[in-house]
Amino acid sequence: MTSVSVTSGASAIDISGLNFRYPRAERPVFTGLSLRVPEGRRFGLFGPNGAGKTTLMNLMTGLLSYKEGSIQLFGREAGRGTRSLFGFVPQDFSFYMELSPWQNLEFYGAWYGLSARETRRRATHLLDVLGLSDVRHQPARQFSGGMKRRLNLAIGVIHEPRLLFLDEPTVGVDVQTAYAIMHYLETLNTRGTTLVYTSHQLDEAERLCQTIALIDQGAILAEGAVHTLLAEHKKEDLRGLYLELTGKAYRDV
Ligand SMILES: Nc1ncnc2c1ncn2[C@@H]1O[C@H](COP(=O)(O)OP(=O)(O)OP(=O)(O)O)[C@@H](O)[C@H]1O
């Protein structure tokens, strides 16, 4: 295992000695996993199908709970009063299809404890930036895949979180929507939001992420700054590095 942890700055995420097994599963997903993400980073988590990316996201966001080891978000144990510290843009759409973008954002704004006025201010801004203003009062079920992805992102950031988890935020969208989402994520990061992103789209990932961890079968194969890892492994791009470290065999058979 190559470990090139970036040690500067305060931690947004600190994972140490994490063990996790799904109930009744034969094998654990994680055994003694440790990982640190400094505040302000654009961090990417990559690996083949079944590597453990979604499980780790779900553990960090408190959707799954763990008994052994520790996951701290800004120094607080995950799942214990950390909800307002982060936003989560999951792979599956997390909004109500029968409601409009405006109604969905009102609902989630209230859920995060924002005032009605603050929710309106944020919703107006997000719908404008993400190109959904004209359809703000239409039911989301009528939307294209790209519009749904943009709404999913808007909901994840309605409360201006310090830390944003993104699980394949551009899967299935056209080039224009992928560009708009990436551009918006970079803007958020410039304003201080730490990004934790996972995707199978490695060219997009390479443009967005400053530091990465490559995981396979629940273990970290490599971790560090993208340019440092590429230089160390004499690779031109993340795809080459990924294939060298994870191999070419299918994982989900
Ligand atoms: N609910 C579950 N119950 C039991 N095992 C599960 C469950 N969800 C995932 N797993 C197993 O945990 C391991 C990690 O899966 P996970 O979905 O976290 O991987 P991933 O890296 O997100 O994959 P993908 O790229 O396909 O989304 C796999 O072996 C998977 O089969």
Automatic annotation (TrEMBL):
A matching Pfam family: ABC_tran
Nucleotide-binding in keyword set: yes
Signal peptide (from-to): none
UniProt keyword Nucleotide-binding present: yes
Residue stretches in coiled coil: none
Keywords for the protein's UniProt record, in alphabetical order: ATP-binding, Nucleotide-binding
One MF annotation (Gene Ontology) recorded for this entry: ATP hydrolysis activity
ABC transporter domain residues: 13-242
Official protein name in the record: ABC-2 type transport system ATP-binding protein
